[in-house]
Predict the 3D structure of the following.
Amino acid sequence: MQINYHSLAKAVTMWSQLKEIAAQGLPFVCFRMPNSNLVKVYQQKDTALNILKDFDKEGFVFAPFDTTELPTIFLTKDATLSFEYKIEEPKRSNTTTDFLESDKTSYLNRIKKAVTAIKGGGYQKIVLSRSIQAQLNKDATTHYKSCLDSYTNAFCYLFYHPRVGTWLGATPERLCKLKGNTIKTASLAGTWVAENSSLPNWGQKELEEQQMVTDYIIAALKPFSKSVSVSKVQSVKAGNLWHLKTNIEGQLLTSQSLLQVVQDLHPTPAVCGIPKMDAKKYILQNEGYSRTYYTGYLGPVNSLHGETEIFVNLRCMQLSATDATIYVGGGITKDSIPENEWEETQAKSKTMGALLS
């Protein structure tokens, strides 16, 4: 089945149809690219759990943080819908943090432990995260509509599979984009709350953290590429936050598989740490919970058209019938101040928390 709607007048009908799709219990994903008005829906014809083997088919990939713990899901593109969506002014309050204080002491203790481990040698950076429980008062598609209205420059998605449940997110971070043999990616790190129109005054901790991510990505791409080019560092805004960003582009060797490149890039220092394997082991042993698909990767696979775009699963939450689990985290270095790191996760929680108010 192939249905394409491009009329703004049909958008209301499309939201009703999306609710019907969600009620069917079949795997589906609804997504919109950054700075686009086109919303796409892929639906799978059955509840099969398809495991990604390569990026050689059309569909959507949804991968976990730890690919040895959970499967990398490939949702087949059996039925599609698409429509132009005109952004509406978000109608929500700014009170989104009342439920976010419960685990502060334990999170601060984990940060202190990580700083001690880094100062002891063996680590340059460890990314720690936490989960936050909240109540839902609307259905998933209504929250997704609010997500589209609120975060125009993010990759906004709503994903469902009976094996992993429902996930919703507005991620600002692209893992990679492949068109032909050209791969584009970016290093994104550092967080500054946007309080006015002025640019952030970045400190040494944030600049060093961002450079770590840049160096890692360059090193990961070089074995697969003929050449790699790097842009200057710039400040970019995502929702109510500023980040540091460096664009990186490579010309892949023709024999390289995109899956090989993605597996080498994931997880990046922005969501894991440096050295990657040591930091990942530390996270799995000390974080205190399973991230599951938070800080994994996801995106549409368009192999027939020679273009695939994959994003890091940040600024996201997992939804049940009555509750939401919001995921937030931050990079810890030797210079980290625990209270500041806590406040950073508080700021990040507002991206999803604002949709629930």
About this structure: The CA atoms of residues 143 and 355 lie 6 Å apart. Helices lie at 11-23, 104-119, 140-150, 204-221, 258-265, 276-286, 338-353.
